[in-house]
Design goal:
This protein is an alpha/beta fold. Helices cover about 40% and strands about 20% of the residues. The strands form 2 sheets. A 10-stranded mixed β-sheet has the order 2-1-3-12-11-4-5-10-8-9, with helices on both faces.
């Protein structure tokens, strides 16, 4: 039987609460399928670890993770540890070390999910964000000069390489072509006169290889307005690291909330493990109460199943989530219900069992 070795970094706050349900759901899928199993190894890394050991993960953490087929991550960040340390020394290190240059984030309004937009129908909100995930505004290049003096100066550089732009843009074209969808590039070349002019140029260049793909190009300010006013314009979307971060939280807001927003950090060449995670953070405001919504994590588990070649199971999981939303009985408080994290996990597992029995 095929065994998938999964490294689990549950992390901080609601991370462990939601990841538990993701693991239970994945184990249920494996049990029902019978052809494969999961072998989960837990790594106790995160802010508690930092408070004890002065570092976010083991010194050879990246080496340890490399031996796995995928990483399943909850969330990182806790009061008492500066966010730029907790995130740079764990999450961003993993994305960069494993060249997970594609961040695939579905923004899809399922039936039964709450939507703050008046008159929006499910079919109007169905996009896939392809976010650049290793460089750009998140390159970590800069300096802090004359620190703590009246003359201090900080510099944060955006780094856009030809290789980095081409590969994410090409991935998005391929996705649009294979799904027969339009492709929208989101940038900001009117103000960012080097990086985004370069991005737009590469978007056009790569597009020459895909004459069949209908394309659009928007400035990020207008794009955020259209995501609210006319979301059906967007199908496949490709954008830079920072713009993708911001626009996918906006996407979450129009497609059911943070509790439903998932993401896959992919190394498409499969040289390194890819990482699957909800896009939300550690939510310190609700941590420890057992009410965090695990559906985003379960959705990211479905992306993991897709990536391993079990798209039928991936789709089935999304169907189970949708059924749960439509029933409107077992939902966490963010979706207007009063169920616990565990009860939502149980409900998804029951649905999986029932759908396989039919
Ligand atoms: P957040 O996503 O943690 O929370 C924003 C709001 O959404 C909160 O009101 C929270 O209660 C709610 N929310 C988020 N996930 C939810 C869920 N599953 N169910 C119900 N409600 C949910 O963002 P934040 O408050 O800006 O950040 C908190 C911490 O998390 C910070 O330390 C930040 O750096 C970190 N962070 C980590 C990641 C990650 O690990 N991938 C992502 C974003 C933020
Ligand atoms: C996300 C998060 C991260 C990002 C942070 C925590 C560094 O917000 O995955 O969306 O900006 O990529
Ligand atoms: Mn984010």
């Amino acid at each position: 039987m095929k065994t998938y070795k999964i490294a689990v970094i549950a992390g901080d706050g609601i991370g462990p609460e939601v990841i538990d349900e993701g693991i239970r759901v994945l184990n249920e899928v494996a049990k029902l399928d019978g052809r494969f199993r999961f072998d989960f190894t837990h790594f106790p890394w995160g802010c508690e670890f930092y408070k004890k050991h002065g570092k976010m993960m083991d010194d050879d953490g990246v080496e340890k993770l490399k031996k796995h087929d995928a990483i399943f991550l909850g969330a990182v960040g806790a009061p008492g540890v500066p966010d730029h340390i907790s995130l740079w020394d764990l999450l961003l290190t993993i994305r960069k070390s494993f060249d997970q240059y594609i961040n695939l984030r579905p923004v899809k309004l399922l039936k039964g999910a709450p939507c703050p937009l008046k008159n929006a129908k499910e079919e109007d909100i169905n996009m896939t964000f392809v976010r650049e995930n290793t460089e750009g505004e998140y390159a970590g290049s800069g300096a802090w000069l004359y620190k703590n003096s009246p003359n201090e100066v900080v510099i944060q550089n955006g780094v856009f390489s030809r290789k980095g732009c081409e590969r994410v843009i090409r991935y998005a074209y391929e996705l649009a072509k294979s799904q027969n969808k339009t492709l929208t590039s989101i940038s900001k070349a009117n103000a960012l006169n080097y990086s985004m002019v370069f991005w737009d140029k590469i978007f056009k260049e790569v597009g020459k290889d895909y004459p069949e793909v209908k394309t659009y190009s928007y400035l990020v300010d207008a794009a955020s307005m259209f995501m609210v006013k006319d979301p059906k314009r967007f199908e496949i979307v490709v954008t830079s690291n920072l713009f993708g971060d911001i626009l996918t939280d906006l996407g979450a807001a129009i497609a059911g909330g943070m509790g439903l927003a998932a993401g896959a950090n992919l190394n498409p060449e499969r040289v390194y493990p890819s990482m699957f995670e909800p896009i939300h953070g550690s939510a310190p405001d609700i941590a420890g109460k057992g009410v965090a919504n695990p559906l985003a994590t379960i959705w990211s588990a479905s992306q993991m199943l897709d990536f391993f070649g079990y798209a039928d199971w991936g789709a089935k999981l999304i169907d189970c989530i949708e059924e749960l939303l439509v029933e409107n009985k077992t939902l966490t408080p963010d979706l207007g219900g009063n169920a616990s994290t565990r009860e939502v996990g149980d409900a998804i597992i029951n649905k999986l069992k029932n759908s396989s029995a039919n």
